[in-house]
Amino acid sequence: MQDVTDLPFMRVAAHYGAPDYFFTEFFRVHSQSRPEKHILRSITENKTGRPVFAQLIGEHIPDMIRTVKELLNYPIAGIDLNMGCPAPKIYKKNVGGGLLRDPAKVDELIGAMRDATPGLFTVKMRIGFETTKNYDPILALIDKHSVDLLSVHGRTVKEGYRSEVHYDFIGHAARAVRCPVLGNGNISSADKAAAVVAETGAAGVMIGRHAIRNPWIFRQIREKFSGQAVTPITFSEVREYIERLYRETQQPGVPEAAHVAKMKKYLNFVGQSVDPDSAFLHDMRRAMTEAELFAVCDRHLLTEPAQHFSTEPYAGVIARPNCETPLRGCSLDTITAC
Ligand SMILES: Cc1cc2nc3c(=O)[nH]c(=O)nc-3n(C[C@H](O)[C@H](O)[C@H](O)COP(=O)(O)O)c2cc1C
């Protein structure tokens, strides 16, 4: 996820039980583009032990192929095409989710990327742009071009991030295409992952925001799928996670206030499982220094008696309304990233 699941976050996620595969933030492809160095680091310095797919967003075929060829020189699991990003500034350029309006273009682009990728070539898509009228034609193209894995976020582009997720459409894809399908959208817990896999027949799930809220989710899903009890997470473990995230994401030369601001973008998600009244979020958003931030964490998380972190986010606790330090692209209402 843009600006979030970078190399430091991958390290942290790996510490708590990594996913089977990572997907990079998207490499933006245009006539002047070169693969962004900070995203390349999540490939070249990936020591998580889990493979990483390089995700591209773009539409100009020669530039896309040039970038695919360049990325193939790096130790990637495969190439992934983004056909889901709903940010207007992205889809207006007919890239990301904008491609879903044009099956003929998708045919050309996927065909060319497939031909250029000797290894795994995967696609991430939504179920449509404004309607789902192009869903079946695009699923047919997934088969036509022998895509190796399809991740489906069960919303249209226009539905953004907060509507119901149409899991029935994910099930439809799982039945329609030959390759494995990953179900994506609000996979908030191990129980939800199991329910969605059972309902849709998907081969697995892709997790986005809930991995920030609860980086133990991958381990918990493995526990659930292997018939074990899901290990609950204590508040003191959450306190330790926040500390780890703080240290891993710290960069030399970045002022303390800026780093505290960056932490808030992660903590907006974590706070959804701390208390139903948003008291942690309220206090956290007012912290300006490291000491203030950790004092808030201590007050809310080092409680006696010890409490458990909620597996699911509390209803009505929204990730970041009124946050004074907005994460680019992370407002669930005014999302500008993918
Ligand atoms: C801040 C943010 C950045 C995102 N960046 C990407 C991205 O670079 N590539 C991508 O395929 N999806 C991206 N997504 C979408 C997620 O991968 C996922 O499809 C969506 O959030 C729904 O799943 P979730 O409920 O598990 O988060 C992003 C989402 C958010 C909130």
Give the strand content. Answer: 5-15%
Low-confidence stretches: 321-338
Which cofactors or ions or other ligands sit in this model?
A: flavin mononucleotide
What class would the helix/strand composition place it in? alpha/beta
Number of helices: 14
> Helix share of residues?
40-55%
Distance between the termini: 7 Å
The helix/strand order is HEHEHEHHEHEHEHEHHHHHH
Radius of gyration, in Å, reads 20 Å
> Mind describing the biggest β-sheet?
7 strands, parallel
Shape: globular
Arrangement of strands in the largest sheet:
1-2-3-4-5-6-7
DSSP strand tally: 7
Mean pLDDT: 93
In short, what is this structure?
This protein has 338 residues and is an alpha/beta fold. The chain is built from 14 helices and seven strands. It is 42% helix and 11% strand.
Task: Describe what you observe in this structure.
With 338 residues, this protein is of the alpha/beta class. It has a seven-stranded parallel sheet with strand order 1-2-3-4-5-6-7. The C terminus is likely disordered. Helices cover 42% and strands 11% of the residues. It binds flavin mononucleotide. Flavin mononucleotide binds next to strand 1 and helix 9.
